[in-house]
Write a structure and sequence with these properties.
This protein has about 250 residues and is mostly helical. The protein has a single domain, classed as Ferritin, CATH 1.20.1260.10. Helices cover about 65% and strands about 0% of the residues. The chain is built from eleven helices and no strands. It has helices at about 5-25, 35-65, 70-75, 85-90, 95-115, 120-150, 155-165, 180-185, 195-210, 230-240, 245.
Length: about 250
C-alpha cells in the first residue's frame, strides 16, 4: 500500500461517516418531535453533508482517476463504503437518535481536535472547521440526553434503551489498522485508540448526570464497516440516496 492509497482510504472513511450520518439525520426533516428540533437536526445533517462533500472531494483529488465527490458518494456499491456501523443504524425513536449522537459526537470532539494538528494542511484545515460544528453537535446531544434521561419514566426508559442498543457499535470508533498506522507515522492521521479513555470519561460523566446506567466495559462489539462489511441498513440508505444519480447518470445539477 502506498501513502497515496492509504490517504485515499482514510479520507473515504471520514467522508463516508459524515455522508451516512448526514443522510440519517436528514430523515428527521419534518418528522422531529417539535419544530425547533426539526430545524436543529436538519442543520446538523447539513453540517455532516457539507463535511462529506469536502472530504470526498479531497479523496477524489488524491485518487487522481478523474472521479468527483459526487461519483464517490453516489456511484460506489455498498461494499466500497467504509463508514463505521454506528452511523448507519436506523434513527429509531428520538432517544435512540440522541444516543447515536452522543457516542459519535463525543468521539468526533477528540478526533477533529487531533486532526487539526495534522501535517496535511488540507486535512488540518477541514478538521479545524469541523471542530467548531462538532462542539455544537455535542452540546445539542448532551442537552437532550439530560432532558430525556432525567425526565419522565418513559423518556428515561427510552433513553436507556437507546444507549443499551447502540453500545455494541461504539467500539469500532477506536479501531486502527495498517492504513492509519502508515499515516500516523507520517503525521497525517491520528491514533483513534488513543482517544478511548477521554471518550469513556466524557460518556460516563454524561450518562451519570442523566441518571442513565452505563453499559458494562468489555461488552461485545460489532465491527466491520471500516472494511466494507455492513449491516443491512446501509443497503437501504444507498438505494434511496443513490437512486436519482444512477437512474440518470448524465444528469447535471
Amino acid at each position: 500500500m502506498t501513502k497515496q492509497e492509504a490517504l485515499f482510504t482514510y479520507l473515504l472513511r471520514l467522508g463516508d461517516n459524515a455522508l451516512v450520518m448526514g443522510h440519517r439525520l436528514s430523515e428527521w426533516s419534518s418528522f422531529a418531535p417539535i419544530l425547533e428540533e426539526d430545524l436543529a437536526l436538519t442543520n446538523i445533517a447539513l453540517d455532516h453533508i457539507g463535511r462529506a462533500q469536502a472530504l470526498l472531494k479531497y479523496a477524489a483529488e488524491i485518487e487522481g482517476k478523474g472521479r468527483t465527490e459526487d461519483d464517490l458518494a453516489y456511484k460506489r456499491p455498498e461494499r466500497q463504503f467504509l463508514n463505521v456501523l454506528l452511523v448507519e443504524q436506523p434513527n429509531g425513536d428520538f432517544a435512540s437518535t440522541i444516543a447515536r449522537q452522543i457516542f459519535h459526537s463525543a468521539f468526533e470532539l477528540q478526533l477533529f481536535e487531533a486532526l487539526s494538528k495534522s501535517k496535511d494542511e488540507t486535512l488540518s484545515g477541514l478538521a479545524a472547521r469541523c471542530l467548531k460544528e462538532v462542539k455544537y453537535h455535542w452540546r445539542h446531544a448532551f442537552d437532550w440526553l439530560q432532558r430525556l434521561g432525567d425526565g419522565t419514566e418513559e423518556s428515561h426508559e427510552r433513553m436507556q434503551k437507546g444507549i443499551d442498543d447502540l453500545w455494541m457499535y461504539s467500539g469500532e470508533l477506536f479501531e486502527i489498522d495498517d492504513v492509519e498506522a502508515m499515516l500516523i507515522e507520517e503525521g497525517i492521521a491520528v491514533d483513534n485508540s488513543a482517544f478511548y479513555d477521554k471518550w469513556n470519561a466524557l460518556i460516563s460523566e454524561a450518562l451519570s448526570s442523566a441518571t442513565i446506567t452505563r453499559p458494562e466495559e468489555g461488552a461485545y462489539m460489532q465491527t466491520g464497516g471500516r472494511k466494507g462489511v455492513h449491516t443491512e441498513n446501509l443497503g437501504f440508505i444507498l438505494a434511496e440516496m443513490q437512486y436519482l444519480p444512477r437512474a440518470y447518470p448524465d444528469a447535471k445539477w
